[in-house]
Amino acid sequence: MLLALDWLLILEKLVLIVIVVMASLLIAMYTTFAERKVAAVLQDRRGPNRAGPFGILQPVADGLKLFFKEEIIPNFSSKFLFIMGPSLAMLTAIMTGAVVPWGDKVHLFGRDIALQIADVNVGILYVFAVVSMGVYGIMIGGWASNNKYSLMGGLRAASQIISYELPMGISLIALLMVTGTLSLKEMVIQQQGGMWNIVYQPLGFLIFLICAFAECNRTPFDLPEAENELIGGYHTEYSSMKLGFYLFSEYINMFVSSVIMSTMFFGGYDVLPFVDESQWGLSDNIMALIGIAALMIKVFCFIFLFMWVRWTIPRFRYDQLMRLGWRVLIPLALANMLVTGAIVLLKQNNWHF
After folding, report:
1. For residue 285, what are the contacts with CB-CB under 8 A and spacing of at least 6?
2. Is 104 helix (H, G, I), strand (E, B) or coil?
């Protein structure tokens, strides 16, 4: 009996992994289409409208074009690492979604199934560990290409990630002081029926959002692939699906970053603040679907913000990028952490002014 339950649990998790991976790839694919349409609206033009009705098959056409292009590996490159770079970037981008609570439990086949692949009690640390590994894919690809522009892009990416992971981590320490947990599921549960964490940590959220732009290499922080300076940056020598992996990993990172911010600061799959959805009298399955829809709406709002900023704000110079990280964001994050710590200490000891 126990063995059968173990196999059922493994089967549930495998199905959930397939669904999450395929959904991430599909959303990333159509995010490229949405970005081109948003850019067209902001620039007063039409955007892609030839492949399929209203151009909705454009991502499929782009994917097929990349898939059927010739694979070119430079003669003097390190071939194993050249292939490993984009593979690692894609793998780490997909792995991040393993600890995200995509919704509340559903009741199927007489069992309660949690819509989360792994409910680990250190979910935030897992996310940070995987995101930190993602830069190795960029660094390895930049170095293995044996191209000075690619190497420069890899070095820029490494220094940028290191610089902006510090304020991102410090901003999260303040959030952890408020919530008292590292589990993303527990954070969502704490926000249900009450205020979302954005109310308690507005400055922490702003710092995290800016750092998310830098971690995803999105404009105005896209210095590792600055076309007017480095041709194509770390993926200059890449073609076909290796280039596709790098481009796809950026959009999957953008999607997962939006999910993480929605979960930590905006209640995740919680539909509305100050509202107890359990009083609505709906079944668990219906509430789970409503929760998933609420999470996706928040995520798509963040993705639109990523696109809007890209086509609005010009790229930083590299010295400005470093100055913002070390001289502005880190002191702000430290100040936010100290103030939050003082307030939490006062509340715990019931001190009054």
Report:
1. 106, 107, 108
2. strand
220 prior amide bond cis, ω within 30: yes
* pLDDT tens column, 234-248: 778 888 888 888 888
* Token code pair at residue 12: 């549930």
- 292, two tokens: 């998933």
Q: For the whole prediction, is pTM greater than 0.85?
A: yes
Identify the band that residue 5 occupies on the pLDDT scale cut at 50, 70 and 90: low
Q: 277 CB contacts (<8 Å, ≥6 apart)?
A: 192, 193, 270, 271, 287, 290, 291
In a domain? residue 45:
no
What span, in angstroms and rounded, lies between the C-alpha atoms of 234 and 225?
A: 6
Q: CB-hemisphere CA count at 13 Å for 98?
A: 20
Residues 106 and 285: beta-carbon distance below 8 Å: yes
User: Hey, what are 308's tokens?
Assistant: 């809007």
Phi, psi of 154 (to 5 degrees): -65, -40
Contact 188, 162 (CB under 8 A): no
Q: Which domain holds residue 315?
A: 60-348
In total, how many domains does the chain have?
1
- Long-range own/partner contacts, residues 312-319 (CB < 8 A, 24 or more apart): 312/42, 313/219, 313/220, 314/220, 315/219, 315/220, 315/222, 315/223, 315/226, 316/220, 316/221, 316/223, 318/156, 318/223
CA 300 to chain centre: 12
In a domain, 305, yes or no: yes
Is residue 300 domain-resident? Answer: yes
Nearest CA to 62 out of 45, 46, 50 is that of: 50
Answer yes or no: is 288 within a domain. yes
CB atoms within 10 A of CB 192: 20
